[in-house]
Specification:
By secondary structure, the protein is mainly α. The protein has one domain. 66% of the residues lie in helices and 0% in strands. The chain has 20 helices and no strands. It has helices at 4-8, 14-25, 35-45, 76-98, 106-119, 121-128, 133-148, 152-161, 166-172, 174-178, 182-218, 225-231, 241-249, 255-281, 287-301, 314-326, 333-346, 348-357, 364-377, 386-392. 40% of the residues are buried.
Length: 397
């Protein structure tokens, strides 16, 4: 269900950020991750939302709450609209950042690059629900630009700020470990220490322990309907490997077996990504494709990935399109497959249909094909003149 009244009453995901910020602002940060505390404050804040089945729990690292505390000095409705406006500003900033690095798309698709950000359904989903995904998209885009400009420490520091989605950002750092980009790792480490200290300052050690227990409790018994309702966590809505496995096997296999299968396949995908990176070490470093594949792989295997997290896909879609736009002549079947896959990823009716059928997790399949296309595109470098190899793809250590 979508609608502005629906959002203003507290049904969207923004309610968790606003309620969490209220708890911290009131001096109860040590109870931020207590179910009863979040349930109590949300009942007070969203009393008109009669069809709410329970609290929408806040379970991100506490440092992120600092961005939402200023919004708690206004009513929930005004705070929600203010956050939507801020997200739209972020949405304008991202294409402005990456546009200079899309040389092959600018002559023909200049305006469309900007429009595509507003037409991509996962981005609409993130804006409407008041999620933090566009902030993460801005950090990834800024890190990419920093890498292209040789500012490696800054790139790592920016990625460290994205640790409010640590299940995506931490595995992504494999890219820089394999490439031995130690300046990136140092920048990331410095920021990670700072945001961890900020989180501990907000919650204290006891609050941090409660956070760990909350994460463990949330991710148990996910095949149980009552558990899903209690924590507002529905595996079938996850647009990743884990969600696909729950969609196919919930009711047939236990949570433990599904989790083991998910972990095994995730490790295989990560090993494939590792092998790809190792192979690329001896070649000219193609930051565009490596960065793109890193994002797609993390969305494939991320432990907790929803449709709004797919906002990050705008970077790989644009970077790979820019890469293929340079090839002359086009590469036949690969180009047709790319066009079909990107078209599928950009078609709003596909998302709406899968959401309505509760098969959002099936989007894992075109995303997997997209990952394979990025890997295949790496071979196209051999078609460029040697001088172009060295001038276009600089990725310093």
């Amino acid at each position: 269900m979508y609608g502005i009244d629906f959002a203003l009453e507290g049904y969207t995901d923004f309610s968790q950020f606003y309620a969490g910020a209220k708890i911290v602002r009131d001096g109860s940060g040590h109870d931020l991750y207590t179910y009863e505390m979040q349930e109590s404050i949300q009942k007070q804040l969203y009393s008109t939302a009669e069809n709410r089945t329970g609290p929408v729990l806040y379970y991100h690292p506490a440092f992120e709450i600092l961005a939402f505390i200023p919004l708690t000095y206004s009513s929930y409705a005004r705070a929600y609209l203010g956050w939507v406006i801020m997200n739209l500003i972020l949405l304008l900033a991202v294409p402005l950042l990456v546009f200079p690095f899309l040389a092959n798309l600018r002559p023909v698709f200049g305006v469309n690059v900007f429009v595509s950000f507003f037409a991509f359904f996962p981005i609409f989903n993130a804006v409407y629900h008041g999620q933090d995904s566009l902030l993460l998209l801005l950090l990834f885009a800024s890190a990419f630009v920093s890498l292209k400009r040789g500012r490696l420490f800054l790139a790592g520091a920016l990625l460290g700020l994205g640790l409010f989605r640590f299940h995506i950002v931490v595995p992504f750092m494999l890219l820089f470990v394999v490439r031995k980009q130690w300046k990136v790792i140092r920048g990331f480490t410095v920021t990670a220490i700072l945001v961890t200290a900020a989180s501990l300052f907000i919650t204290g050690w006891q609050g941090a322990i409660k956070y760990v227990y909350l994460l463990l409790e949330i991710n148990q018994n996910l095949t149980d309907k009552a558990h899903q309702v209690r924590f507002a966590l529905y595996p079938r809505a996850m647009a990743n490997l884990r969600g696909l496995l729950y969609t196919l096997f919930a009711g047939h296999l236990s949570d433990t077996i599904i989790a083991m299968i998910s972990l095994s396949f995730s490790l295989l995908v990560l090993l494939w990504f590792y092998a790809y990176l190792r192979k690329r070490i001896s070649m000219v470093a193609d930051i565009d494709l490596e960065f793109s594949l890193g994002i797609v792989v993390m969305l494939l295997v991320g432990f907790h990935v929803h449709l709004y997290d797919w906002s990050l896909l705008m970077l790989p879609i644009l970077l790979l399109s820019n890469h293929f736009a340079e090839l002359s002549p086009p590469r036949g079947l690969e180009l047709w497959t790319l066009s079909f896959t990107i078209l599928l990823l950009l078609m709003t009716p596909v998302y709406m249909a899968l959401i309505g059928l509760e098969f959002t997790s099936l989007l894992f399949i075109p995303l997997l094909v997209f990952a394979r296309l990025i890997e295949a595109a790496s071979g196209d470098l051999k078609y460029l003149p040697p001088a172009q190899h060295l001038s276009r793809y600089r990725f310093g250590r």
